[in-house]
Amino acid sequence: MSYVFETLENLARQTAFGSLTIGNFVMIIVACGFMYLAIAKQYEPLLLLPISFGMMLVNIYPPIMEEGGLLHYFYMLDEWTILPSLIFLGVGALTDFGPLIANPRSFLLGAAAQFGIFAAYITAMVFGFNDMAAAAIAIIGGADGPTSIFLAMKLGQTEIMGPIAVAAYSYMSLVPIIQPPIMKALTTEEERKIKMEQLRTVSKRERILFPIIVTIVVCGLLPSTTPLVGMLMLGNLFRESGVVRQLTETASNALMYIVVILLGTSVGATTSAEAFLNWDTIKIVIIGFSAFCFGTASGVIFGKIMCKVSKGKINPLIGSAGVSAVPMAARVSQKVGAEADPTNFLLMHAMGPNVAGVIGTAVVAGVFMAIFGI
To answer: Cα-flanking dihedrals φ and ψ of residue 364, to 5°?
Structure first.
């Protein structure tokens, strides 16, 4: 009988539940909440589901992120900035830059939405973070998870990379909740009803030249952005050239989804209770949220200015799509516009600022790296 009791006792010691802290249980509950949003509400499940599951795994079994643990090696690919660059390759293969080429003014709206990043940089400095940490936190305002991870790693901010990445990806996923109230508060119903003229047809030559020219100009001015901008434009060149269909399909499908699994679970696994439940994390989440809201607002406000200048030809709602959350932000512009007028179709017009925002956030990251001599 004693043997049975000893065996049961040994088995009990091997379970994770006996060693879990209150913080671990809190993080497991948070992970389940994110899974609920991903599954029941379908808030960007491709991002939120692997992140939340990785969050749950590391809080049940912390050694999974230690050397020798499975997710430790996934995370190494983040540290080497391999996964963020591959994500950009896939995004480029999926992205149609036609709306941006057809309406170059979209670059201005994409640039305006980046003001949230600089506002967050100043705020983070006020909150007591050093300059490099503040820059890594500020990039959350662009709502671009891969760029957030890339910059945090390049600036050596590995200790706060987890909260930064989770905040960036969470706000990307929650775009349909966060943006509409801001957009409606800053625009009138008449402005939301504005219908924009159909975009001109973009030639194949323009589509092929665009990624080549952007690469030469942006990477020439800011060489540190090459891993992101270079991969983004390479993926787009695959798509637009029409001669490498197999590479386009691989980059935009199989490779993209494999990278999302690795990146999502490893990012989620950086949120152990010890690393996540502290005052710095709370400050990062607050600063990131305010930055994202400010970026959305600045895009809409600049859209209102362009509306006035163009004598009512530009719907200010497309300015909110200037953040990098592709294509979620553009879809939100379409949804809010359609609520005001069901016959209004803004999606393609909003895609211009949206893809401009992707380039803009990468450029801002390059500016920060140039400032710090990285």
So the answer is: -60, -40
